[in-house]
Amino acid sequence: MNSFGLRKRGKLGKCGVPIIQFKGKTAVESYHRVVPHHILEIDEKLSLAKKPSLDGNLIIEGDNLVALKSLLPTHAGRIKCIYIDPPYNTGNEGWIYNDNLTQPQFKEWIGNAVGKEGEDACRHDKWCCMMYPRLQLLKELLRDDGAIFVSIDDNEVHHLRMLMDEVFGEENFVTALTWKTRNTDNRLKSMMSVDHEYVAISAINQSPLRGRVIDRSDFDNPDNDARGPYVTDPLTGKATAEERPNLHHTIINPNTDDKYPPDPARGWITDKMGMDRLIAEGFIWWPPNPRTGKPRKKRFLSQTSERMPASSFWPDIKGQSGADEVDKILGERLFAFPKSIEFMRRILELGVGKDEFVLDCTAGSGTTAHAVLELNKEDGGNRKFILVQQPFDTKENAAEKFNICEKITAERVRRVIKGYSYKTQSSKTEKVAGLGGDFAYVRVGDKLMGEYRDLGNKLPGFEEVARYVYFTETSQNFDASAVDNATGKIGEWKNTS
Known about the structure:
The protein is of the alpha/beta class. About 25% of the residues lie in helices and about 20% in strands.
C-alpha cells in the first residue's frame, strides 16, 4: 500500500471539499518558494536570432523546475497558454525523481527510476511530489486570464485532477478533454483496447477559452445579395402536424408563385407570420428548381461568429502521426511518441491568441514551437514560444552525451524555421519551405547566489542581480531598458524605488 489518502479541507479551504494527501506533501507544498534562482545564459552560437534575448522565443536547456523559477523575474504573469506533457507514470518510461530535496523521505528516491505498480509502493507519491512544485510555479507564470493544458492518461488522471484543483482552484477546472491516440488494437489483460488519453484544462479566473475556429470557406453569394456571402440552413423543424399545427403551412415564392407544402413529420421552423417576415426581409434562399429542392434560411458571414464552442471529444486526431513528422524533419527516428502538429495546433487555437506567449516546459521534440510557427505563418500572428527541455532524459542519454534539447528540440525548430528536405518511400527528395522565425538558445546556469545570499567568487552580471532584486521586491517583471547605468537605479514600482 502507498501513503495516499483523502482528507477534508480545514479552515483554509472550502468546507467538505476533499484534497489529496501523499507522502512528502508537507515538504513540497512550499518547495517552489525555496528553489534557488539560477542565471539564464544565452548561447549565441546555438541561437537563431540576430540579437538573442529573453524577450522573444526561447529554448531553455535545463531542469524545468529550476528553469521555471528562473523565468519568474521576466515572465511572471505573462504566459497566456501553458501546455505540459509530463511522465504518465506507466512504469515503462524510466523517468527519474531527481528534485534536490534534503528531507529523509526523499533520500531513497533520488536518482532511481520510478517503477511499476506493485513493484514501487511510492510511485504515485513520487509523481505527485514531482508535479506539485512545478504546478505552483506555472501558476505564477500564468496571466490572470491564462489557461493550462496537461496531457495525461489513466495512470494519474485522478491524482492530476486533484492537484490542479488544489493549485489552480476547483472552480477554474474546465474539463478533461478526451482524444483518440491510436488507430491500432491495444488489448491489455482486460481485453480492452485503451485508445484514448486526456488533456486536463484549468482556466484562471474562469476565463473562457477561445473556442473552435469556424470553417468559413463555404460562404458564397450566388444571388449577389447586397449583404454579402452566406450559407443556408434548413427551414424545417421537428414538430408533426398534430403537435404544432401552426408550423404546417404552405410557403409561396413571391417571385415565381412556386408553392412548397410542409413536411407532415417536421413542419417549418416558424409560423406563417414569422415566415412572411423572413420572406419580406430577404432571408429565404429559393431553389432554382422547386421539384428538386426546398427553400432554406440564409445565414450571412457578417452575422456569424468566427468561433464556436469546441468539443471535449477529439476522435479525429491522427495520434501516431507525430513520429512520422519528426522522422521527416530530422531524418531518423530519434524521439518516441511525440505529439502531432495537428494535436498541438488544436490546443493552441483554444488557448493562445495571435500576440501571446505559450510555454511548454516538457518540450520533447519541439512540436509546440513547430505549431506556433505554423500558425504565425498562416495568419501573420506574433505568438511567442518558450520551450524547456532537460539535456538528458535517461542515464543512457547522459552516458552517450546525447543532448536532447540541443540535438532534437532545437534542431527541429531550426530546420522548421529555415526549411528542410526529406526522402519519400520512393526515394524522391521533397523540399519543405521554412516557416521563418527565430529563437534564443538558453541554458540554466549557476545559482545566482548561495544559501545565505552570498555571491561567491564568480560574480554574476549586474543585470542578473538587478532582475532578481527587482522581481523579489516588486513581484513585477524586470525591464532592462529602465536601468540607469550611471546611478545603478534599476527601476521603481509604486512606492518602491
